[in-house]
Design goal:
Length: 468
């Protein structure tokens, strides 16, 4: 099974207790673990039954990995009510079940073959955009859930906010989402997953959803039904206001920095770049170089960029000394390991850098930060790395005004309500979120307003929708 991660017994017992909290399983009930692996959840159900003096109900465990199947079948050979099936859960409905519990595999679209993507997009409504395999497990499991049946899954919390899970959130809104338990990020030991345990009953939603936060705090919320992000409901909802536009309305670009896919090849200290490669090198900066306590933007790093100012890749025949550098065995080996080389020349970046736009004064921010803050690159000469976002106003005169506003308590509060969370409560800023930041017309110059059709500007629905 792709994306298989063993679930710790403590997490398993926590989830089993949730699924049987208000209704104990009867001997005739059917329970499904759709990605059973070696039987962690089946073990948990057996432990629960033994502790509560209950007969082990009928359990079906499904997995596509023959190694896991062999181990699980041997383990449960003395349990006539437990059946282990060697199947692909996503390709065949196994029936209807009163209880479904599990830890579906987490596999992003980049981990799937072209054929798999095509098949899944044909079969599943949730296979849209940059979907993850666990979206499909959610959809298939709900198709298998009996009326009034109960499902408990542990998955990444990202499904609550990312744009690619919009269809999944719409489907889930048709069910009663009893509880979302945001588990500690170290629930899986050293594997940081930011997990959420979601408890769902197959009935018309009639109550608000209980939210348990990682710090132990609790609240009940009404989740949106239109597929938009759940984060504003979870972390505080800022309603749209008249007299506001979005940051995207005012900017040429709001974008993640340049992703080379091989920073060890392309990014070096300025003093370490050979003289004959200097013409390809530009000052760069990482998220670590931006400081809340310093207004200046500085780094001793430079990025070697094999692109022309118009964003076109320099032909290999014109690279000269840069080609010799990139062909060094260590460098070439690293470059060929990147996923982008399947569709691009061996020395290309993941995406063509729009240098003509990047190389001008701009506002910068970290992609992951404890406190959202913004800084200005007054020089205009910095090419941000992929851990930095850059914001380029349409009107250069707005640079400092926007910078001041973006560092205001109003924007900080908005970001804290709409951003995804990373480890230790840090915030994950992304371009789709940044573009939606509401900006009041009142901070802009009258000259700019007079040249705009203000009524045509989109007043944002601050839903916190996030890209995958």
């Amino acid at each position: 099974m792709k994306g298989f991660v063993p679930t710790p017994p403590s997490v398993v017992d926590h989830m089993v207790a949730k699924i049987f909290e208000k209704k104990s399983p009867e001997s005739q009930d059917n329970i499904l673990d759709p990605g059973c692996g070696r039987g962690a959840f089946i073990d948990g159900i057996i432990r629960w039954c033994k502790k509560n003096y209950k007969e082990v109900p009928r359990i079906i465990g499904i997995d596509s990995d023959p190694k896991h199947i062999a181990i699980a079948r041997e383990k449960y050979s003395e349990f006539p009510s437990i059946q282990i099936r060697h199947e692909d859960f996503l390709l065949r409905l196994p029936g209807k079940f009163n209880f479904i519990i599990g830890n579906p595999p987490y596999v992003s679209i980049t981990g799937l073959t072209g054929q798999e993507k095509n098949v899944y997009r044909t079969l599943f409504q949730t296979a849209t955009g940059r979907f993850d395999l666990y979206f499909l497990f959610f959809e298939q499991a709900l198709n298998c859930l009996e009326k009034d049946g109960k499902l408990v899954f542990i998955t990444p919390e990202k499904y609550l906010s990312v744009k690619s899970a919009s269809r999944l959130r719409t489907i889930l809104s048709e069910y009663c989402i009893n509880e979302i338990d945001l588990m500690h990020e170290k629930s899986f030991g050293n594997l940081i997953t930011y997990p959420a345990v979601t408890t769902i009953t197959h009935k018309t939603p009639d109550t608000a959803t209980a939210i348990i936060f990682r710090d132990g705090c609790k609240k009940t919320v009404k989740l949106p039904k239109d597929g938009t992000s759940a984060f504003p409901a979870l972390y505080g909802n800022i309603k749209k206001k008249p007299g506001y536009c979005t940051l995207a309305d005012l900017c040429l670009r709001v974008s993640c920095g340049v992703a080379t896919g091989a920073d060890s090849v392309y990014v070096h200290k300025k003093s370490e770049i050979p003289t004959d490669l200097k013409k390809y090198a530009f000052p760069t900066i990482t998220g670590r170089d931006l400081s809340l306590n310093a207004l200046n933007v500085h780094s001793d790093l430079e990025m070697i960029i094999p692109y022309e100012a118009n964003g076109k890749l320099i032909p290999e025949s014109h690279l000269g000394s840069l080609k010799s550098f990139l062909l060094m065995p260590k460098n070439r080996t690293r470059l060929l390991k990147r996923t982008c080389v399947a569709k691009k020349p061996w020395y290309a970046f993941h995406e063509n850098p729009p240098l003509a736009q990047i190389l001008q004064p701009k506002i910068l921010c970290k992609d992951i930060t404890e406190t959202p803050f913004f800084r200005i690159d007054y020089s205009g000469g910095i090419v941000p790395g992929h851990s930095v976002y850059y914001i380029i106003p349409k009107n250069p005169d707005h640079l400092e005004t926007l910078h001041e506003y973006l560092n205001s308590p109003e924007v900080r509060s908005w970001l804290e309500s709409n951003c995804q969370r990373a480890a230790n409560g840090f915030f994950r800023l992304q371009s789709t979120i940044l573009k939606q930041i509401p900006v009041p017309f009142s901070i802009l110059e009258n000259e700019w307003l007079s040249g705009q059709n203000v009524t045509s500007l989109h007043v944002p629905d601050h839903s916190g929708e996030v890209a995958g």
